[in-house]
Structures are given as structure tokens and as C-alpha cells.
Design a protein that fits this description.
A 7-stranded mixed beta sheet has the order 6-12-9-8-7-10-11, with helices on both faces. Strands 1-2-3 form a 3-stranded antiparallel beta sheet, with no helix packed on it. The chain has a two-stranded parallel sheet with strand order 4-5. The chain has a domain of about 180 residues: Nucleotidyltransferase, domain 5 (2-Layer Sandwich), CATH 3.30.420.240. The protein has 13 helices and 14 strands. The protein has about 350 residues and is of the alpha/beta class.
Amino acid sequence: NPMLGRYVERIRRANGQQEITFTSGSRIMFGARENGFGRGLHSVDVAVFDEAQILTVRAMDNMIPVLNTSPNPLVVYMGNPPKPGDQCEAFTEKRMHALNHDGNLLYVELAADKDADPDDREQWAKANPSYPRRTSEQAIIRMRNNLSDDSFRREALGIWDETVTAYAIDPDQWKAADVDDVPEGGTVSFGLDMPPDRSVLTIGAALRYKDGTAVIQMANIKDARQAGTMWAVDWLAERWHKTASVVIDAQSPAMSLLPDLKAARVKVTVTNMQEMGRACGRFLDMLKAGTLKHPRDEYQPQLAAAVKGATTRPLGQSGAIAWNKLGSDIDITPLVSTTLALYGAFTTKRHPGRRQEVMV
């Protein structure tokens, strides 16, 4: 570009080290953020995250500190509405805060009307400033013909899914379910969960009673960076003979304990995506029906914080949901682990304490 070329000193194209250096000494650097790009950099003034709908918290944690010495830093996030399964916590959190007018944020959303006709050319133009010059009508028609309706709404019209609610659990229903004392006589099941950064390991419990009611509560939680994880194996093995089930979700980092639990003769139920959806559905149904109880929030602050900070994410196209979190600094493992424990309590066929004969 003749107009810009005079300001460029050199262009570097080496794989993983692409950058443009200007005669002023400024640089534009390009890197793969998931491969650790940004670590060790300093004096960065502007960070631009493209495809932010798949920006992980880990990658953001690596990049944001490089702006610390800038006198006037700027962070830009650009992306499409995330699709189900995207690791979109960081992007979704920024959008939520912007819509709630929280923080020092400017948010610009180019999108068609939520109830737009997918074939309306005026709506195409509203969502795409480059239409029809840079992005041609033929290009959008191609997407229309090859994408599902939901995908077209996200990719071409910029419309966010409305399946994610502000709060997953109704505060009034949760408050109505608290109890001062946990009744005796219930059969206990446990659930395990860890966050992606493996910072804590949480064991949740569910007590099932003969009348079909249940009580969920925290059983144990420890900082995995300090205490490790083997304590949970020993803790569960000690209680296994009185336990109806132990449940871990297949996508949880707590799955790393599966071999050790098996070695300790603790039988573990591993849930898949569909079962996780049923587990969350059971939780919400029982809470609404008044058959699910929990200790007062002041007795279980970690569980209370998880419930308050939880939202939902869709699981496929069936309408099933799983727990998600409103912010990257929220720990929802107490909610996930108690939900898994509740699922195990109502699906297990094990009768703890009963003598069983196994034919081999």
C-alpha cells in the first residue's frame, strides 16, 4: 500500500513470529494465544482478541498482564455469538457486564432483530456493514443454504442464543428450600468436580429419603494446589461401604481420579452429556416441586455462592442444559458436585450395607 508503506520498516513472516515493525518503533505482533503467545512480552499498549467466542480464560490470563506497564492500555474483543460447546465464558461475561452497564466498557453489537426473517435482505444489511459490497449477496446465500437456521442466525445475523438465562436457579425457590437441620435416615451419594484450572476439588453430597425427597449439601472441598487430590480417594474409600453411589461427569477434570478410585474399590458412575442434562433437569424439577432441600446459605457459603453465580448452557439441540458460570472467577463445582450426587442418588441400584454375592 503506497500510502502506508512508507511508515513500515519491515515485515516478518516467520511462522509463529509474524509482525510488522514501523519506522516509529511501534510493532504489531500476531500470535496463537492458546500456544502461550504473549508470555514475557512487556510495554504492550493494545491487545486484540479475534474470534473471542472461543477465547479461553487461560489464554486471557496469559495476555492481559502484558498491558500492566502501559499508560493507557486498550483491550479489544471481536467475535461472533458463540455456538453451543464453545469455550465462551470470557466473551459472554464481557457482554453481560456491558449490557448491565458494569465497568469501563464500550460494547458494539452488529446484529439483526431477534425475530428477523432469515431471508430479509434489509436484516442482512443491518447485521453486516460490509453487505453487499465486500460481503456479496451470493456469499450470504451460500451460508443460508449450507448452515442450519440457528447457525445462520449466529454467523450471518449476529443474533445471540436466548437459551442462556441470567440466573439458572430461581432465588425464591432456593430460599424456600433451606432447612436448619438435615433429617436423619437418608441414603448418601457423592459427586466430584474440579474446575478447568484444577484449583479446587469438591465433593458434594445428596441424601435420598424413602418419601422421594432429598437434601443436598457440601461434603468436602480443598485447595487442590495445596492439598492435592488423593485425599478425596481416601475420604471416599473410607465411606464407600455406606455410600449408594459416587458420580463424576465425563468432561470434568476430576476424571483423573478414576483409576485411583477403582484401585480403592470405589465404584464410580461416569455421566455423559445426556445424563448431565438429565441431572440438571432433575435438580430444577425437584427444587420447583419442593422435594429438594439444602442447609441454610450461611452454613454452606460455597454452595450458596455457586448457586448465585450459576447460569446455564445448552447441550445440543434437545433443549437439555448444563450449569455454566456468570463470571470466570466464580467456582460452580459445589453446584455441579451436588447435582451429580443427586443424580446418583436417584439412579443407582446399589444398596449400601446389604450383603451381596457376585458370581464371576
